[in-house]
């Protein structure tokens, strides 16, 4: 029987990762075995599933686990007892972004970018709106986000008429691009079908701004960012077989119970 202590929901995802890493280093989670389902870890640690997901991706970046889409999250290695996840993570997460989780970044964008879109619809110059249209067309033609996604949102921020808001949007994107955890979330859970939907969302934003409709622009941007968060927050276990329903190597049904 494995034991994981509850973690305060206010703590960062790195603390969750450290708790799980401790169990790997101690041998409670053996190399080659599958970790409990994301929803089970969230329940035992008393945190959100999105925080657990961030922790699992951070653990993968540090070499503790491997996320196998369609199968589960597997323990890949044990580290010495003196090792620390925080020490390992410092090698792959920049100093600036190390304590900021991907969902915190998205929540920040949600607070700022809808208003930027509304202000751009009201205050943007014809030249600035032309740049928004150009960025939107480039994004559609590329068929994938790449740097065109940032260029689109940056063009909107630049057209909002507030240099401080423009700078904040740029800084938040810098933090996101500096976060390997954010990047790995995209790699695992964002595919071409997801981006087809996102492109439609971008079209709605651009159309509202170019028609100088601030209310519709604000709502379109808000809906887009909420949709991104919803797509990334989809439970990993929802796309993977339930750990309790899969046979172990011995052929027996394996049930892993976690107690507080």
From TrEMBL:
Q: In Gene Ontology terms, what is one molecular function of this protein?
A: DNA binding
Check the record and name the InterPro entries matching this protein.
GntR_C, TF_FadR/GntR_C, Tscrpt_reg_HTH_GntR, WH-like_DNA-bd_sf, WH_DNA-bd_sf
Query: PROSITE patterns from the entry?
Result: HTH_GNTR
> Keyword set for this entry?
DNA-binding, Plasmid, Transcription, Transcription regulation
**Which Pfam family is an annotated match for this chain, by its short name?**
FCD
Has UniProt tagged this entry with the keyword Secreted?
no
Q: Which stretches make up the HTH gntR-type domain?
A: 10-78
Stored Gene3D superfamilies: GntR ligand-binding domain-like (1.20.120.530), Winged helix-like DNA-binding domain superfamily/Winged helix DNA-binding domain (1.10.10.10)
Q: Does the keyword Transcription regulation apply?
A: yes
Q: SMART domains, from UniProt?
A: FCD, HTH_GNTR
Q: Provide the protein name.
A: Transcriptional regulator GntR family
């Amino acid at each position: 029987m494995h034991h994981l202590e509850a973690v305060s929901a206010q703590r960062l995802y790195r603390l969750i990762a450290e708790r799980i890493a401790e169990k790997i280093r101690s041998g409670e989670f053996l190399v080659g075995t599958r970790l409990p389902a994301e929803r089970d870890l969230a329940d035992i640690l008393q945190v959100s599933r999105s925080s657990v997901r961030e922790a699992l991706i951070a653990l993968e970046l540090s070499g503790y686990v491997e996320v196998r889409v369609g199968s589960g999250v597997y323990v890949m290695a044990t580290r010495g007892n003196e090792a620390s996840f925080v020490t390992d993570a410092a090698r792959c997460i920049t100093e600036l972004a190390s304590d900021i989780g991907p969902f915190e970044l998205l929540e920040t964008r949600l607070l700022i970018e809808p208003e930027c879109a509304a202000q751009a619809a009201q205050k943007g110059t014809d030249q600035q709106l032309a740049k928004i249209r150009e960025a939107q067309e480039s994004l559609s033609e590329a068929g994938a986000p790449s740097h065109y996604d940032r260029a689109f949102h940056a063009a909107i921020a630049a057209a909002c008429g507030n240099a401080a808001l423009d700078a904040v949007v740029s800084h938040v994107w810098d933090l996101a691009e500096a976060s390997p955890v954010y990047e790995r979330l995209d790699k695992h859970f964002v595919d071409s079908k997801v981006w087809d939907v996102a492109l439609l969302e971008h079209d709605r934003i651009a159309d509202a701004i170019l028609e100088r409709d601030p209310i519709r622009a604000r709502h379109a941007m808000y809906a887009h960012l909420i949709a991104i968060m919803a797509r990334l927050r989809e439970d990993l276990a929802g796309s993977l077989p339930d750990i309790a329903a899969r046979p172990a190597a011995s052929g027996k049904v394996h049930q892993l119970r976690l107690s507080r």
